[in-house]
Amino acid sequence: RQSMSIVFVFSALKLIPLFLLILMGLAHTRPELLIHVDLPLTGTLGEAILVLLYAFVGFESAVVPAGEARNPRRDIPRAITITVLTITGVYFLIQLISVSVLPELASSKTPLADVALVLMGGAGAAMLTLGAVFSIGGNCSASMLSAPRMTYALAKLGSLPEWFGKVHPRFRTPVNSIVFYAVLGLVLAVSGSFIWLAVVSTLARLLSYILGVAALPVLERRIETTDSQFRLRGGYFVPGLALLLCLWLTSFASMTAWLTTGGFFLLGSLLYLASSKSGKKNKIS
Q1: Nearest CA among 169, 246, 176 for reference residue 208
Q2: SS in 3 state form for 135-198?
Q3: What is the value of pTM for the model shown?
Q4: Residue 39: predicted pLDDT
Q5: pLDDT score at 41
Q6: Which among 202, 265, 63 is positioned nearest to 145, based on CA atoms?
Q7: Residue 251 and residue 96: Cα distance in Å, rounded?
Q8: ∠ at Cα 246 (52, 68), nearest 5°?
Q9: How far apart are CA 209 and CA 63, in angstroms?
Q10: Measured at the alpha carbon of residue 136, what is the angle toward residues 107 and 61, in degrees to the nearest 5?
C-alpha cells in the first residue's frame, strides 16, 4: 500500500505538466500535419516502433501484485485496457502539439522542454523537466514494486534459488529480490545508453508477450471459466494479431540486443538449474 501510494504521487506529479502542455498547446495544433506526411521506409519504421514501444510497455506489471488486490478478476483487465487507451490518446496529443509548435522537433535534445518553453516560457520548461524527473522516479518505483515480486514468486515455485524468496521479518517484503533488482538495475543504467537499454527492455518484453499469447489456448482449456470473467470479443483474432505484431517487431532488434537478451536468458537458465538441483537434494535429504 505504501509503495502504491508513492507510485500514485509520482504519477500525478508527472501527469500534471503533461496535461498543462496539452491544454496550452491545443490551440496551436496543425491538423494538416496528419494528412500531408511522407511515409518512412519500412526498415526505419520498424526500428522506430521498437524504440517507441518502450513508452507503452510496462502495463503488464499490473498483474504481478494482483494477488494483493481486492477484486483482481474484475479490476485488472479493466484498468489495463483503460490505461493503455488513455495513454495512447495522451501521447498522440503531445506528439501532435509538439510537431505543430516546433517543426524542427527531431533535432532537439530536450523536445518537451523546448515545446514548453515556447508555450509557457522558462517556468513551463522547468516544470516539464521536473516532470521528466518524476516520471523516471515513478517508473523506478513501479518497477521496484512489481519486478522483485516476480523473482520472489519464482523462488517460491522452485524455479529460482531460495535466496530470492527471503522475506523481511518486519516489512514482509521480498528483501533479497529487491536488493538484487536494485543492484542489477544500477549496473545496467551506468553501462549503456538509453536507446540501447530501451531496445533490450522492449525485446525482452516482446518475448514474454509472445509466450503469454501462445499460452492463451492452453490456459483456456485448463482454467475453469466464471460469469465475472473478462472476455475479449473476437475469439483469437486479437491475440493472433498481437502475436504476429510481436514477431514482426522482434525482427528489427539488433544483434547486440539479441545477444544481451540471450545472456540474461542463459543466466536465468543457470539459476533455474541450480534451484532444481537444490530442490532435488532437499527432497532426498
Answers
A1: 246
A2: HHHHHHHHHHHHHHHHHHHHHHCCCCCHHHHCCCCCCCCCHHHHHHHHHHHHHHHHHCCHHHHH
A3: 0.72
A4: 67
A5: 64
A6: 63
A7: 28
A8: 85
A9: 13
A10: 115
